[in-house]
Design brief:
By secondary structure, this protein is α+β, with helices and mostly antiparallel strands.
Length: about 850
């Protein structure tokens, strides 16, 4: 059917005022009450249906429905509580599927405030939806409640829409006042018009016009609040509550509302926030917030942990804490950045199945080069002025990050800013870093992580946490005395009798990046808090082998993040309190003095003195257990430690999140006597994943000696083949696979292990790292790293095998007797048939059995 370009509003007198509607028009009605809008919408829809046009009603408001289900139009029910992206995406999909020439009626946009809390996001929604409707030659009705929105938001809507109309009534009189009518004009068009029967009469006399508008304006609040965003008005109301006597219920309601719009959506974290934060706490957070919206999961975790501990008087943790003065960039800034740079259509393409990865690369490149609104730039500059030339770190803090069940550990980026130079230079560095964190939302690992957990359609706005880097200036360097990761539950105990519930730490000198990442050929200090001096290795030789060799820090002179060797720091005599965190290494000192000259002193980082001669171990254990009690869940923290002028330690708590754990604490029955040729491996400790009985239907085994003999490029090719074999596992529960290989899985250095990406091993059920001395291929006991988080969240059981250690059995002869099916699965992998072995073991009785209580693990063929 071919329609005329001119369309009726359904009210003849109204058509005459504006010379009718046009296909492509978006009409925004500013109303005093929803009933006025309903009358206008009913006339519009009735006329459209009569003309046999397709009419759609977008239902999402809290007000009474504008139309009943039997009104002859299609009704879509939408949920704005899903967040800006989810709601806007749903609207976009509906408009796309409905196609061209459709008539729309939307509920009052003002009702979105209860879900989104900011005019900014309503403006963003209209800014992306209105042009799309225009492109599809539709006609759409929208409503705004008068004086509920800031002038900035109304101005943005006025700029975007084709028609903007004021509607008001005085007693029995009903008026329409056109404010904008695109590409139409008449001498009286933009005057108020009084409804008189079926006609509208323009108010042409100045006496009548001034009397009418004066009467209307008296009903409006002319205070400065009219100029304010809904968000600001809400916080002003909260501030007034603090200065007057209000009931506990009123205050509780306000706390609940502020937590919902500024902190978190995830139910468990929301409950914790409401239980622990006071109204004053929330107002203090607001003073450090740039823009509007959520502060994100990482920020909430940090603030919540600090609040829980500082209000606990049993130990008095506040005396041990370094205060924080962080800023938070609200999540609304992220979407505004996307919308105002014109990338929303690209964002919608990326959310499709076809564009999920492909368009993400294009969007990532674009997001690294966008511009920010002037009002955001000004707030960024204020942050730069506040911190001066102190180094800062800009950390991702997305809505889903650090929540129960979804850590997103290492999936989004965080960047250090050395923050040196003129204010203008420091601002440029700051802005570039914000862009890089935003762009990291399109990282392939993050997208895979979201898809694996069914989160690709969830609202995932990126907020940011801007923190002062904890530490001290030491010559040209800046870094803390030590940093680390702490877990309230230690599923990777390495000796029988250790208490998993005591928790554990990973400690490093310098910035904590070496504690949270798997670092090649470098090791943090692992500390079991029930036996702090017990190590997973023994002897001075092992102590040197499994100790930290390099320090991550900020080079102030060169204005960048760097990794510097400890030997270089020994040579430069950098001011480090080694007597508190290390022991002298006399053998290495003598060797360095012979080879390099000078009065060099070498130290081995053990942290033994800190752990035994101070209250540090007790404080960290109590801190972790108190947080675990408050969360009713195991958790993980990131922290730094600095010593003050009198040598006392001060902790800076940087992050706190629920710890992802697998397995259970229960007794497992091991077989009695079993033939040695039926055992693949058996040992005490060196596994993580709790207590399991795991059948194994397929084994992928990389022969250590054959792998060691390969050239570097061939080792990369082996990694890609593992990825292909991993992708063949459609369902891990239906076909559990065990992967055994030399050294470190996921290393970036092929000489140290197999350089797979995590997406190339994510379907594995059991993963083993085998130590191989000839090739220096050593497992890395990486409990507490982002790599560990990936294993746990993908429910991959991990074991490290050191074949030469006492009590360890490692015997692959039974496997090697079988026929490898590698070339049957991947004929193109024939070149590596002597390196990669793949065995079908389904029905053979092969099982991995572990008992976290007895700290025993065995892989064997059952009778």
């Amino acid at each position: 059917m071919v329609f005329s370009a001119r369309v009726t509003t359904g009210v003849e007198g109204l058509d005459k005022i504006i010379d009718g509607l046009r296909m492509g028009d978006n009409v925004v009605w500013q109303i005093e009450n929803i009933n006025d809008y309903r009358k206008l919408a009913e006339s519009f829809v009735k006329s459209a249906i009569k003309e046999k046009r397709r009419v759609v009603y977008m239902r999402f408001g809290h007000h009474e429905p504008l139309f009943a289900p039997d009104s002859g139009l299609k009704i879509y029910s939408l949920n704005p509580d899903a967040g800006f992206e989810g709601f806007s995406s749903d609207v976009h999909k509906i408009i796309t599927n409905e196609g061209r020439d459709v008539f729309y009626v939307f509920d009052s946009l003002s009702d979105l405030l209860s879900s989104w809390a900011t005019d900014l996001m309503i403006g963003n929604f209209f800014f992306i939806t209105c042009p799309y409707l225009f492109d599809l030659n539709t006609v759409a009705y929208f409503a705004l409640l008068q004086n509920r929105h800031s002038h900035h938001t109304v101005a943005r809507i006025r700029e975007t829409t084709q028609l903007l109309m004021d509607v008001y009534s005085t007693g029995k009189d009903f008026y329409v006042h056109p404010l904008k009518v695109w590409k139409r004009y008449s001498p009286t068009m933009f005057l108020p018009h009084l409804k008189d029967g079926d006609t509208f009469v323009p108010i042409t006399r100045s006496l009548d016009a001034s009397r009418l508008l004066s009467q209307i304006s008296k009903r409006w609040d002319e205070s400065t609040r009219r100029q304010m965003d809904y968000w600001d008005r809400l916080f002003l109301q909260a501030e007034e509550m603090q200065s007057r006597d209000v009931s506990p219920d009123e205050k509780k309601t306000m706390i609940d509302q502020l937590c919902r719009i500024m902190l978190v959506r995830e139910p468990k974290m929301l409950d914790l926030a409401r239980e622990n934060f006071t109204l004053d706490d929330l107002l203090q957070i607001k003073t450090r917030l740039i823009g509007t919206g959520y502060v994100g999961g990482k920020t909430v975790g940090m603030l919540l942990a600090r609040k829980i501990l500082t209000t606990d008087t049993s130990i008095g943790y506040e005396q041990y804490f370094e205060p924080h003065d962080s800023f938070f960039i609200g999540s609304d800034v992220f979407y505004t950045y996307i919308v105002q740079n014109g990338w929303w259509k690209l964002r919608m393409k990326q959310k499709t199945k076809e564009g999920y990865f492909k368009v993400a690369r294009e969007l990532k490149d674009a997001m690294a080069n966008g511009i920010f609104p002037d009002e955001v730039k000004e707030q960024f500059f204020q942050v730069i002025e506040y911190f001066g030339q102190s180094p800062i770190i800009i950390r991702s803090s997305s809505l889903l990050e650090d929540s129960f069940g979804h850590a997103f550990a290492g999936k989004y980026e965080s960047f250090f800013c050395a923050n040196q130079g003129t204010p203008e230079e420091r601002y440029i560095q700051f802005e570039e870093t914000v862009r890089k964190v935003y762009a990291s939302t399109m990282n392939e690992d993050a997208l895979i992580y979201r898809r694996q957990r069914g989160l690709e359609d969830r609202d995932e706005q990126m907020a940011l946490l801007v923190q002062r880097v904890s530490g001290s200036y030491r010559k040209d360097y800046f870094f803390p005395d030590l940093a680390g990761v702490g877990m309230s539950y230690n599923t990777f105990v390495w000796k029988k009798g250790m208490d998993p519930g005591a928790g554990m730490l990973r400690l490093v000198l310098g910035l904590g990046t070496r504690a949270v990442n798997r670092i090649e050929n470098d090791y943090p200090r692992m500390v079991a808090l029930d036996e702090p001096l017990l190590r997973p290795h023994a002897g001075m030789k092992d102590l040197r082998t499994y100790s930290q060799r390099n320090v991550d820090l900020i080079n102030i002179r060169e204005n960048e993040f760097q990794t510097v060797s400890l030997i270089k720091m020994f040579e430069e005599a950098v001011d480090i309190p080694f007597e508190k965190i290390a022991v002298p290494d006399y053998e290495m000192t003598e060797q360095l003095r012979k080879t390099r000259g000078g009065d060099i002193e070498s130290w081995l980082l053990t942290f033994d003195s800190l752990l035994t001669d101070t209250s540090f171990t007790k404080v960290m254990h109590g801190l972790l257990k108190n947080l675990e009690k408050a969360y009713s869940y195991p958790l993980e923290i990131e922290f730094t430690v600095n010593f003050n002028d009198v040598g006392d330690f001060r902790i800076n708590l940087l992050q706190c999140r629920p710890l992802q754990v697998i397995g259970v604490e229960k007794n497992i029955e091991f077989p009695g006597k079993i033939d040695s040729d039926k055992v693949i491996f058996s040992m005490n400790g060196n596994f993580m994943g709790g207590s399991i009985v795991q059948p194994v239907d397929r084994v992928i085994f990389i022969k250590p000696e054959a792998y060691s003999a390969l050239h570097q490029q061939e080792k990369y090719e082996v990694a890609r083949i593992i990825g292909e074999l991993n992708r063949m596992i459609e369902n891990r529960n239906e076909m559990p696979v065990m992967l055994l290989g030399p050294g470190r899985w996921g290393t970036t250095t092929p000489a140290l292990g197999v350089p797979v990406h995590f997406s190339e091993i994510n379907n594995i059920a059991v993963m083993g790292e085998i130590a191989h001395l000839d090739g220096n291929l050593m497992p890395e006991l990486s409990y507490g790293t982002h790599f560990f988080q990936d294993l746990v969240e993908n429910r991959i059981f991990y074991v490290a095998v050191f074949p030469w250690e006492d009590g360890v059995v490692f015997n692959t002869k039974r496997l090697l007797k079988g026929k490898s099916i590698l070339t049957g699965l991947l004929p193109e992998a024939k070149k590596y048939k002597d390196v990669i072995k793949v065995y079908e073991t389904k029905g053979s009785g092969l099982n991995v059995v572990s008992d976290v209580v007895k700290q025993r693990i065995m892989c064997f063929f059952k009778e």
